Amino acid sequence: MDIFDGLPISPEKAYLREELARIEVSWVAPRFDSLPHVVHILTSKDREGEVQILKDQNDIIEEVVDEVVHAYHTGFNKAIQNYSQILRLFSESAESIKELKVDLAEAKRRLGTRNKQLHQLWYRSVTLRHIISLLDQIEGIAKVPARIEKLIAGKQYYAAVQLHAQSALMLEREGLQTVGALQDVRSELTKLRGVLFYKVLEDLHAHLYNRGEYSSAVLSMHEMDDEVPTTVAVAYTTNNSQPLSRRTRLKGDNQFGVHGLADGSHSSTFDGHDEDGSLEAHDETSLDGLSIGWLANSTPDEFVEAIRKSDAPLHVKYLQTMVECLCILGKVAAAGAIICQRLRPTIHEIITSKIKAHAQLINSSRSAIGQAAQTGTTGLHFMKGQLRSYQLPKQKRQNGISLSGTLLAVSPVSALMAPMGKAQAAAKELLNSILDSVVRIFENHVVVGELLESRSSRHDINTPKSMIADANWNPDSEASVTGGYSIGFSMTVLQSECQQLICEILRATPEAASADAAVQTARLASKAPSKEKSYAYRDGSEDGLTFAFRFTDATISIPNQGADLIRQGWSRRGTNVLQEGYGTAAVLPEQGIYLAASIYRPVLQFTDKVASMLPQKYSQLGNDGLLAFVENFVKDHLLPTMFVDYRKGVQQAISSPAAFRPRAHTAATYVPSIEKGRPVLQGLLAIDFLAKEVLGWAQAMPKFAADLVKYVQTFLERTYERCRTSYMEAVLEKQSYMLIGRHDIDKLLRLEPASASLPNGQLDSVSSVNDAATPGVESELSELFLSLRPIRQENLIHDENKLILLASLSDSLEYVADSIERLGRATLRESNLVEESRKPHHNRSSSAPSRDLASFADEYRKLAIDCLKVLRVEMQLETIFHLQEMTSREYLEDQDAEEPDDFIISLTSQITRRDEEMAPFIAEEKRNYIFGGICGIAANASIKALADMKNINLFGVQQICRNSIALEQALAAIPSIDSDAVRRRLDRVRTYYELLNMPFEALLAFITEHENLFTTTEYASLLKVNVPGREIPSDALDRVSEMLSL
């Protein structure tokens, strides 16, 4: 019965809810049908009981209705009483208003009778209040100089400037201008204006270069003192709550609003001052628990409110406050002129001091570590390069020659100057540290420059907020508004100093940098490019501070400045630097042009950070300047120098007499690791080293990777030609070289199962060749080689040194090909990362160079495969050359064979000797490929030799079997060859010749059981040869042919 859940039933009657819940839902249906209930009662056995149940439910419902009526009746009574009270109060209020109207009319009548007397009294009271106010103001103004001095001593500059402006404005009020006692106060305020300007400017200058009390570096140092007790460098963490790419400034187009005295935002009274001359302290100047102490005593105004609500970092708020002080004082132009004058020497001093601190840190770490550890570190934390394959192998040759020394001898740079050398790491770390400081300084200049430029449209920013006349104040150009200072100017000077530093690191002196420094620091977009102006900013008093500065108004096209400075001429070495050096030689192990590689990335990151801070109208400055200087220097000087130097190194490496001379001990075993002594040819190892080094430069300078990869391609092409020449010198006019050039033989060599051991690259897949086709391929190839008989000795390679050279050249080419392939993949992967992370104007596609490197790897690998093919075919031809003597002799021996034939002894000794000589230079699987073709060709040649024999006896058969055993022993001695396969093939030869000892009928029985063991021609040769004591029927050939054809 959910319909009754909301009824106002008292807790004492809670049992009624349970009773109501027992009533069926059908009783409360909207359309009640009584018939089913009547039928139910009439058909029930206990009609009285059913009726009684209905009566009980009726009593419960009536009791519930009584409770509801009682509850609502009480509420109705209270509401009626409340309405009665409201009506009574309204009636009483109406009576009171009528009486009040009567009283007001009487008061108006009585006051009208004495109107003139009241007016006179009011005017007298106003006059007395004004006189009292003037006296209070005179008394307060007399204390202002002392108050200002006290605020200056407490570094409450904004409060002091507020007080100065308010006091100066008050002295110009009517009634105070003629007070003679205030003349001394006027003079003191004029002096204090100069003092305030000097103090504010000095504090602004300190905070511009992160040397002030509220600078980001100082605040982060205090934070790190609490977290990390021991630290060396000051971390830049305070304003890293926002990225450097965000220009920190207050929200809104008008950051502080119009808060000059002229619009009434500054109070003209001294109600906020107490007896001792200090302003009231306001608790509102706090942010995130950090008290804005420099505004503690200031008077609340729009600027203070904006600072309080701003979410900018603390150091940015302080810079905004100092600029606001200069605007109130009307000293923006003077301040801008001084900042411009101090900018270059200050930056130079900061960079020099940072380098000296770095040098002291290095010296202290060296003395702490000791002399023994000096060889392992330079005191700097060197970063690991991403080209992990670039490293000097740390092994010695078997003959005692240091490989590292050999490689370094061909490199045009020292180990310190290499892409991962200590000099590169030191230069990168030093420049990163300095440019990071410059970025933080430039961020402050952006804040100040934007504040000044946002007010450049206002004509009163250089007019003091007081009404004191300044006869010497007459700005006559746009440049005078900020004294020549702007974001573009500060960026130009900062980049110019960084450029001078980079020049010293590179030991390169631009002629443009030796020009007059005034040309580089001239004001931007001057209207009078040839006119010299001298601005004097005076305070109008003999005792006031006077600031006079002289500029040269030279026009500079900032967007093209970086490129113009580069193209004015460079000298790789020079000492005609305008300023004194920075002292980088004390920090860097070595200086030189190759350090441009380590400089490129820091400058690129610096340019990105600076560009992200620049306002939109200065966005072009982010693309030129220092980055353009470095890129032009790399393009015009470093890359040509690098090409010449490395081309000379490549030429020296491949033209050396020892470049293609195999170097390994004859008893040594082959090792696949270059670090453990893999016998790669010295010339190819040097080329691989140089290629890795050049690609190391490419990784350091991704934009120029395509050019450097082209250099590597040029070097690899020249090296390939030299390898090809050495290869041709070994195989020229040799039959093995001519055979592998035939299309049919080359195709069969590719299809051979043994070709699976060849280096991957230009090979066809052997997986498509089934097992059934394998014997056919070998048999076809064997028939082609055997058809070349007789093999002439002058067509074979008999110089063992040439064979060793081919083996060593093959392994070395494979090593270089694998290395090139890895370098190509690393270059492609690095280029993809650069393309994803760099901006569009820094992108440089490198997919084509990576494909070119892969093609070079394929060319090297193909030549390595050709070397292996020549060696394999050469050994097969040597086998045929020796075994072809079987056809020229008769095996009619008169005694049992004890030794193999001389040609077999010569062949086996040659196989053993060449295997031992090649073992140190080539892997086992390649040795298997070279010597693995001997067994098959020897077996086929031995079997086919029977067709050319006329007579053979029992001892002759034993002699041939003895020859096969000797050949089997020689081949089985080669570790890489499968001895079981050799045994099976040569067992077939022995089985074949032993069939000559069988009678004809036994031979027929054997053929019946093993009809597929030999071909029809081979079985026919068994019948054609003359064997003493064996009888062969005249129809033997027909019977055998008929048997095999079934």
Structure explained in plain terms:
The chain has 34 helices and six strands. With 1046 residues, the chain is mostly helical. The radius of gyration is 52 Å and the shape is flat.
Spatially, the strands of the biggest sheet line up as 1-2
End-to-end separation in angstroms reads: 104 Å
> What is the general shape?
flat
* Rg, Cα atoms, Å: 52 Å
Total strand count, please?
6
Q: Specify the oligomeric state.
A: single chain
Helix content bin: 55-70%
pLDDT averaged residue by residue = 75
Task: Give a topology summary.
Layout: H1 15-22, H2 35-43, H3 47-112, H4 115-142, H5 144-153, H6 157-171, H7 183-208, H8 216-227, E1 286-287, E2 290-291, H9 302-309, H10 314-329, H11 332-369, H12 403-410, H13 422-454, H14 479-482, H15 487-506, E3 509-510, H16 517-520, E4 534-537, E5 547-550, H17 561-566, E6 570-571, H18 596-613, H19 626-655, H20 682-700, H21 705-731, H22 735-740, H23 743-751, H24 773-786, H25 800-837, H26 847-883, H27 902-918, H28 924-931, H29 933-945, H30 954-972, H31 979-994, H32 1000-1009, H33 1016-1024, H34 1036-1045
Antiparallel strand pairs: 1-2, 3-6, 4-5
Helix pairs in contact: 5-6, 5-7, 6-7, 6-10, 7-10, 10-13, 11-13, 11-15, 13-15, 13-18, 18-19, 19-20, 19-21, 20-21, 20-25, 21-25, 21-26, 23-24, 24-29, 25-26, 26-27, 26-28, 26-29, 27-30, 29-30, 29-31, 30-31, 32-34, 33-34
